[in-house]
Design a protein that fits this description.
There is one protein chain. Strands 1, 2, 3, 4, 5, 16, 17, 18 and 19 form a nine-stranded mixed β-sheet that branches. Strands 9-10-13-14-15 form a five-stranded parallel β-sheet. Helix 4 crosses helix 6. The chain is of the alpha/beta class. It contains twelve helices and 19 strands. About 30% of the residues lie in helices and about 20% in strands. The relative contact order is 0.16.
Length: about 425
């Protein structure tokens, strides 16, 4: 059927309403809408959100299809309520040319589960020495507007300045992985009491904060846009807050795991908790939540980082850094932000749909739930509670830190331009 009636949903957590989808768009929103000729989705007690948008996803293809593919990654995204993701450039080969970003873009179109917008590398091969084909990637069929060497920091100030100057011409943004490499040589976890007790190399907060401080000043000098990936410390929050008070065009993201988990978990030596940037302290976690609530941190981004079993099921020092996150992100945000009263569902829609789409310049996503808008929607059973079981993940990888943990909320339906990609909690 081309028509779908979502009946009695709490739109952005508000009063129950009906939403009628006709083809690829929302035809009407109101009470008592006719179901004639429409497939009915009973949504009483459920929350209806615009389709989620992730500005920071690793899909691994091309080159590391043992970890994830565009198809499996977009299936995971749809399962988590996402209708669009931005795919990071650290693939093999690196997405530093028009040809590679167009390949990822085409694979996303073919998947049918979620729109994929490639992110282009800032430098050739992520090596930090020479700017990549920024203009060619922007002018390609993929229309790249976000550039990042994520996984590595653009630590050369001159290269970073030139990148900011270059993308300013077409309204692009540089997304920085803030990690001063000299301060993190041999680092294994957050530098602090726990690292000292465990004898693991420490990753100091200043390694992140010093790069953010430099880059907001460069952005101000150039008059360009900079986005801070996976901000993780209380000190970083204060720098971004100061920069915004000066009118500097900076945005920032926080991951779900940095909103919930702390470095105390590393005492288990379980490599599932090894991530870049590392899990920080309880003080940092609380500062990040407050900053997300007050808008200092603009968005939640997953940093979905799939790895094959053998790369995580090994000794801590040899383990890869990263966690999968697309299928659990909304539940963690509900747990840490909604159930604590820091955000309402309208705030969740802003941080996980409207604003990431705006930062990435992604048309057709992050739109209001109203007549005439694209029918990119997510229906959530917020009353649900259950244990996380990675065996049921759509992702090819299982490296989740939440296995066995009870989390709230479950995506029951996801609609991509009016077509159901998830129905009753299962991929369509």
């Amino acid at each position: 059927m081309s028509k779908i009636l979502i009946r009695g949903a709490q739109v952005l957590g508000g009063a129950p309403q009906d939403v009628l989808i006709d083809g690829e768009v929302i035809e009407a929103v109101g009470s008592g809408l006719s179901a004639e000729g429409a497939e009915v989705v009973e949504a009483a007690g459920k929350v209806l959100l615009p389709g989620l948008v992730d500005l920071h996803t690793h899909l691994r293809e091309p080159g590391r299809e043992d970890s994830e593919t565009v198809l499996t990654g977009t299936r995971a995204a749809a399962s988590g309520g996402y209708t669009a993701v931005f795919a990071m450039a650290n693939t093999f080969p690196v997405a530093d040319t028009a040809g590679v970003v167009e390949q990822v873009y085409r694979l996303g179109k073919e998947s049918g589960y979620c729109d994929v917008q490639p992110i282009g590398a800032v430098t050739v091969g992520l090596e930090g020495r020479k700017l990549a084909e920024l203009g060619a990637m922007h002018e390609s069929a993929a229309g790249v507007t976000v550039f990042s060497d994520d996984g590595k920091c653009v630590d050369d100030a001159v290269i970073m300045r030139r990148a900011l100057e270059y993308v300013k011409a077409f309204g692009g943004v540089i997304a920085q992985h803030a990690q001063e490499p000299r301060l993190t040589e041999g680092a294994q976890m957050n530098e602090g009491v726990v690292s000292a007790e465990l004898g693991l190399g420490g990753w100091p907060a200043v390694a992140e904060e010093s790069i953010i401080a430099r880059d907001v000043l460069l952005a101000e000098h150039v008059g360009s846009r900079v986005h801070i990936c996976h901000l993780s410390t209380a000190g970083s929050v204060e720098i971004v807050r100061w920069a915004k008070s000066r009118g500097i065009d900076v945005t920032a993201e926080v991951t779900p795991h940095h909103l919930l988990l702390t470095d105390e978990l590393v005492r288990s030596y379980n490599p599932v908790y090894k991530v870049n940037p590392p899990l920080r302290t309880e003080r940092d976690v609380l500062a990040l939540r407050e900053a997300l609530a007050d808008g200092t941190i603009d968005i939640v981004a997953t940093d979905h980082a799939p790895h094959p079993h053998e790369d995580k099921d090994c000794e801590w020092a040899a383990a890869a850094m990263g966690m999968v996150g697309l299928e659990t992100a909304l539940s963690v945000v509900q747990h840490t932000m909604v159930e604590t009263g820091l955000l309402d569902w309208a705030g969740v829609a802003d941080r996980m749909s409207f604003t990431p789409a705006r930062i990435g310049g992604l048309a057709g996503h992050g739109r209001p739930v109203s007549a005439g808008e694209p029918a990119n929607l997510t229906l959530v059973d917020s009353a649900y509670r259950g244990e996380v079981d990675p065996a049921g993940f759509a992702s090819r990888s299982r490296n989740t830190p939440y296995e066995g943990r009870e989390l709230p909320g479950r995506v029951t339906h996801t609609f991509l331009r009016g077509r159901a990609t998830v129905v009753d909690g299962k991929l369509a």
